[in-house]
Amino acid sequence: MMQRVYMDANATTPLLPEVMAAMRPWFDDNFGNASSIHFHGQRARAAVDHARETVATLLGCRPAEIVFTSGGTEGDNLALFGILQSGGMLQPGDHLITTAVEHHAVLHAAEHLRDRGILVTFLPVSSAGVIDPEDVRRALRPQTKLISVMMANNETGVLQPVAEIGRIAREADVYYHTDAVQTAGKLPLDVKAIGCDLLTLSGHKMHAPQGTGALYVRRGTPLEPLFFGGLHERHRRAGTENVPGIVGFGKAAEVAMAGLDAGIPSRTAALRDRLEMLILQSVDEAGVNGGEVPRVANTTNLWFDHVEAEALVIALDLKGLAISGGSACQSGATEPSHVLLAMGLSEERARASVRFSLMKTATEEDVDFAVALVPQAVARLRELSPVYAKKTAVTVSGGGLHD
Ligand SMILES: Cc1ncc(COP(=O)(O)O)c(C=O)c1O
Fold first, then answer.
1. 3-state secondary structure at position 210
2. pLDDT tens digits for 128-154?
3. Nearest to residue 309, comparing CAs of 345, 352, 341, 356?
4. By alpha-carbon position, which residue is closest to atom 9 of ligand 1?
C-alpha cells in the first residue's frame, strides 16, 4: 500500500482512539436526552457537565461560561451576531473592529453585518501578518461594540498580540472576541490572561469530531442567541445537546492539556523548523510567509515562485503527501488567499504558496518523507513553467555553459 503522510492538521485532525473510546457508549448503551429528568437523562446530563468542566479547565474559566456549539463557524457567528444583536436588534451605526486576515467564519459574518448597517473596520496587517495593537486603539469609536481578532491564523500560524488587544478592549470597555480555533492544543489558553469576553474553539482541529466546539462567554456578557427553541446552554444555544460529540470534545480537551504538559508543541516546532530548513536548503526562489514572527508550532506556509499551489498540492498528493494551498475551506475556489494578499504578497506569489500543518503525532520520518518529495515536485512543475524555463535559459547561456 502507498505510504501516506498527512500534513494538513489545520484543515482537520483524526479522532484520537481515546476520544473515540470515550464517545462510543454515548451512541448506544448510554443514550439519553440531557434534558430528560429520568435516569437516562441524568446520566447524559452528568456527562455533558463533566465535559463542560474539562473544557473550562482548558480555558481557565467557569463551566457555566462554556456554550457547546457545532464548531468554529457557529462559535464565531454566535460571538459576532450575539453581541451586535444584544438587546434584540442590530443597531445600524454600531461599530465592529476586526482584521483582514480572519477566517471566513468571522470575515463573512462581518461583511454580512456591514451589509446590514454595522460599521466595520478591517485592520491591516504587517508583511509578517501581524496587526498593530495601536491600530485597534486608533480604530475605537464611541459606537464600537465589539473587537474580534483571531489568536493564530489558520493559513500561516501567525499569532496576534491578543493579550495587548485585551488590555485595550478593557480600557475602552468594549467586548472582545478571539477565534482560538487554531490555537487549542498548540499553546496554553487562559481567557483571563487574554482578557477576552468571548473565545471560539472547534473540536475537529483538536482530535474531537467534526461538528463539535465551544464558545466561551464571560459571565455577564449579553448575548443574543442565534437559535430559538429550548432553554439549553443557559438560553444561549437552543437544541438538544450532541452528547457523544460533547463527551468527545471534553476528552479531546483533556488530551490537549496533557499534550501541552508533555511538551508536544516544542517537539512539533522542532519538526516544523527542520521541515522548513531542509526544503528551503534545496529549493531556490522560495521562502516562508510569516516566518519572522511568533507562530503556532505546527504550521508553515511556504512560497515557491513559478509554481501553482494547486498543481503542487495535487502532485504531492499523488505521491502520498497531503498538504493544502491557501485555506482548505476555499478549496475549489481559485481566488488567491485573502490572508497572503493582506500581508502584501503579489497575487502570483499568493497563488504559489502552500501550507504544511503537522499533526501532533508527526515524526522525523514524516518530515523526511516530505523533504524527499517537495523539492523534486517543485523542480518538475517549474520545468513546465514557461516563465521559469525562459529565465533559467537566460541564466544558463549568460553563464556560458552553452559555449
Ligand atoms: C481560524 C478558524 N476559525 C474558524 C474555523 C471554522 O471552524 P469549523 O470548521 O469548526 O466550523 C476554522 C476552520 O478552518 C479556522 O481555522
1. coil
2. 999 999 999 999 999 999 999 999 999
3. 352
4. 72
Q: Give CA angle at 189 (367, 233), nearest 5°.
A: 120
**pLDDT for 328 beyond 70:** no
Q: Where are the beta strands (DSSP E) in 95-212?
A: 95-99, 119-123, 144-148, 175-179, 198-202
Pick from 311, 74, 302, 46: nearest CA to 198: 74
- Packed helices 364-383 and 386-398: angle between N→C axes, nearest 10 degrees: 80
Contact 343, 128 (CB under 8 A): yes
pTM: 0.95
> Do β-strands 286-288 and 321-322 pair in parallel, antiparallel, or remain unpaired?
unpaired
**Which band of pLDDT confidence, cut at 50, 70 and 90, is reported for residue 394?**
low
Residue 152 main-chain phi, psi, to 5 deg:
-125, 135
Q: What is the 3-state secondary structure (H, E, C) of 67-117?
A: EEECCHHHHHHHHHHHHHCCCCCCCCCCEEEEECCCCHHHHHHHHHHHHCC
61 classed as catalytic? no
Sheet of 353-357, strand order: 286-288, 299-304, 353-357
Residue 69 C-alpha cell reads as 456549539
What's the grid cell of residue 299?
504550521
What is the best residue among 178, 186, 202 to mutate for testing ligand 1's pocket, by most ligand atoms within 8 Å of CB?
202
- Protein residues whose CB sits closer than 6 Å to any atom of ligand 1: 71-73, 76, 103, 105, 150, 154, 179, 181-182, 202, 204, 213, 329
Domains, the chain, ordered by start: 5-11+263-389 (3.90.1150.10), 17-259 (3.40.640.10)
End-to-end CA distance of the chain: give it in Å, rounded: 48
